[in-house]
Automatic annotation (TrEMBL):
Residues 253-575 form the Glycoside hydrolase family 31 TIM barrel domain. The keyword Electron transport does not apply. It comes from Oenococcus sicerae. This is DUF4968 domain-containing protein. PROSITE patterns: GLYCOSYL_HYDROL_F31_1 (PS00129). It comes from the Bacteria.
Amino acid sequence: MLGKIKSYTKKDNLLSIEFENGTASVTVVTATIINFFSPHLAQRRVSKAIENLQTSSTPFSIDADADQLTIRTKKLKILISTDFKTDIYDTLGNPLCEDYRGDGQPFVRRGSSAQLEIASQEGHKIDEQASGEKIKIFKKMAENTYFYGLGDKTGHLNKKDYHYRMWNTDNPNPHVESFEAMYKTIPFFIALRSQQAFGIFFDNSFESTFDFGKENSDYYAFSAKDGDLDYYFIYGPSMKTVIGGYTYLTGRTPLPQLWTLGYQQSRWAYTPENRLHEIADTFRQKDIPCDVIHLDIDYMDGYRVFTWDKKKFADPTRTLTDLRKQGFKVVTIIDPAVKKDKGYTIYDEGLKNNYFATDKDGIPYVNQVWPGDALYPDFANKTVRHWWSKNQKIMTDTGVSGIWNDMNEPASFNGPLPDDVHFNNDGISADHREIHNVYGHYMSKATYEGLKEATGKRPFVITRAAYAGTQKYATVWTGDNQSLWEHLRMSLPMLMNLGLSGITFCGTDVGGFGFDCTAELLSRWVQVGAFTPLFRNHSSIFTRDQEPWAFDEQTEAINRKYIKLRYQLLPYLYDILHEEESNGLPMMRPLLLGYQSDEATYEINDEFLCGDQILVAPIIEQGLTSRMLYLPKGDYWIDYWTKEVFAGGQYIIKKAPIDVCPIFVREGSVIPLYPVQNYVGEKDVKQLTLSIYPFVRSGQTNYEHYQDDGESFNYRSGVYNLYDFSLKQVNEHELKMTLKRPHAEYDHAYHSFKFILNRINDPKIIVDGQITPFDAAGEQLTFQADDPKEIHISY
Ligand code: GLC
């Protein structure tokens, strides 16, 4: 217990407080982001998540009276009292987040140890009560609070009443709601109450827990086994602002190469070489677009990372060049564990230079992974990261386009790594307890930097394990799911919560990794996959084939239809990711993120928004061919397939035969589309299509479209184009559009535009004063213009 406040000093944004029994500090990062810190482990502080934080001076005042300090920023009032208790209010004095007074009072698990003994004979286990926590923060639970975030934990979107553990875990059993720990540690959550949101980021890499009222409904709490008390309060009140604040701290997903948004096909394992070619050729023969094929562990020579099995791939460079000619990029898996094998360069170099984690006596630590006895590179050491970065060139020189980092929790086959395994931690020695949860994060960082240096292009890294901030370096997937309807269902809240936790570029193994997929399950899963940021079908060895054509003609046609739809939507998806670089907002969003004032959206697990214009309400139950769905209040929604209009704020029943995924477009939307291509870059897109969804009554909106070369970092020095489309619905029969080009530095601008007019009949179209003909062939009404500035449509 820190005791009473003795004194304080203020310097710039930092308020240092001396208590009777220790010290603490409050940093006013911005008027809405406040850090609370108290050293426990040592007087040192190295955030693994936050790098190069730019703070500028933020005005705030401090008033001191008998026992407490009152801090006021433009947006918040914060009271600090005895024992570093903190209570946060908005400027009107409404409580936002108050510390709970009193000790924790967890519910009791009844039963004697003898009964436990008996129960365990049949394999029953009790959940361990948390123990050995050095830091625990209790917050008062206010009524009707909803909790979101924490990365890809299982269960529902709202985490209220559940308890979670942050300890990166590779558990091959089917993921279920009762799993407390998964592969990632994203110790960040958002609390939403009375339409107001704030976030808390607990920046502590030791094993931690989050309890949202399960232990006791009077409080929620977060704790850690060691490390410092170090957390950020991030005020909204809009959730979008909270996510903006969290990603301002931990970083944002950099714009990826455009092809990474294409369809990706994976399997453990597409080897040998002729199988890989067979897969590639089948995509092209069957007219199913695909950009990427993944090579799982079997391409390696005896699972030695950065090697190729020459019996399976006689000349990998040639193979990859041939695939490249067909438009395929190849991504190879790289695991962290290095085979213990004298004469194997990576092992020899690592051993000679002390690059591996050691036991407490400094002897390189050995466990077992795919290659048998293996060692773990100490990614917490900059020098080791640099070495690992350089190794990426071995792969890119062969023509590899991206790297898939797996098993980096780190996983081990011979029991867990002991707590005292030692890491360098950039010069501040640390043990496994502190590094475990950031191991995958540091590995991704090393991979990202290596790919960037080797290729100069935007790196494509996929990782399974992650920590807060990994979004700066890697795309993630949700690990080893199974071909179960339950896992399709659960993937939606998992991916939505990842997005709310700063990880916008994420996906799940489409079709399911373990177990055998069915035709119907794959058909429904690809309908979801088409709208998830990472769109990769992946399955395990010995499971039934799961490629788009692996079942029957109908399933193949459904895969083709949704993969093609994905390719049409590429410019829209790319726009979302471009915007994300400046606002941190995910591509796949729970409805509540767009409609915070509509409380009916707060618990919707089975629908999502793709960006802010498209709503997807997939079928995620076997046999269903219609479903009930909710359309958020305040907007009209247009059925993408039938163009029927529905007012928001109601539940509707939608028919959805096996080839139909219910999709709705918000009124007033402008959706940029590309022609379908077999792979990104196959066609030189000179004409941009804009699908226009007029407002039902009236309204006004702007859509900004972004265009660049899709692969280099030149956009950071301004080499890109922006197209600003504004729509003004004057009345039910009159629409005005203007087009501007606020930024035009990329010399590959579109030559012309094609407009699709949805829900407009028999219009009179005037483009820059000229009556323009339209084409009403087929179902769509379209017209074209080269360089329109003002368009007037009456109908
Ligand atoms: C792990 C990965 C999985 C991969 C397999 C073999 O289980 O999660 O995606 O296919 O290892 O490398």
